[in-house]
Amino acid sequence: MPGTQDGGAWHVRPLIAILTDYGLRDHYVGHLKAVIKLVCPEAEVIDITHDIPKYNVALASHIIKISKRYLPKKTVILAVVDPGVGGPRRNVVIETRERVYVGPDNGLLTPAASDEDPRAYEIDVNKVRIGRISHTFHGRDIYAPTAALIACGVSPEFLGDPIPFDVLVKPPIEFGRGKMIKEGLKTSVVHVDDFGNIITSLSKEALEEGLKIRVGDRVALTTDLKTWYEARYVESFSHVGVGELAVYEGSYELIEVALYMGRATDLIKGAEIVLSTVSRSSRGDCSQLSTPPTR
Fold this sequence. Notes:
It is built from 6 helices and 18 strands. By secondary structure, the protein is of the alpha+beta class.
């Protein structure tokens, strides 16, 4: 945890980590941080990201889950990806043995908190408000002051009524698993990064178990069950040649598809991908296949 030294003693500063889909062009992130500093001046604030694709609750929930291990214990995670702002969804705090999560009850927080002995509370806005509450900016008017109060030592139980964790909303996509169909293993595309790499919802374990493959094997993939592309399952896209397709576990801790030194999205377009094995007799490393691969 960040801290300062005073007379030989270290004083740990509370830490708030923020994730949103706000971007940085407008004032939204600045207002969140201003409210935090207004309520808890000693809080240290770090940014996980503010470039979540707009309204992508599923991807944001996964990023929170894979980010939490890099945050010190007792960190307050403030997350706002909230397409239902101003609607009937709840405003919640989830307190666990490791950290505290603050945000909307829309599936954003539950994956990260589920394995940490969670206790959930519905925020009483009258206990956290610092002024008028906007109908469209709960991040500033509800979640930022809530996170700041908790960071400065207020127990979540004093900020709202307890609710069962099991009634909280789950994310719209279940990460890790795929679905076996006749043609292969089907998975969802959850994100395309700035390099044009395609991030799927599939885990490394699910891919290897579903297709019975290992690193170095060839795979085929399609989005329409008509045009198939051959790729190699590797540890990094640098293990294939320039212009060839690679399938690998990326930093999202999910299976990704990359076109080395290019953009995979120039070839692979669609909301779902089917992966399959390739017959050992197929020729070529990363060529387009005219017929579905043998399995």
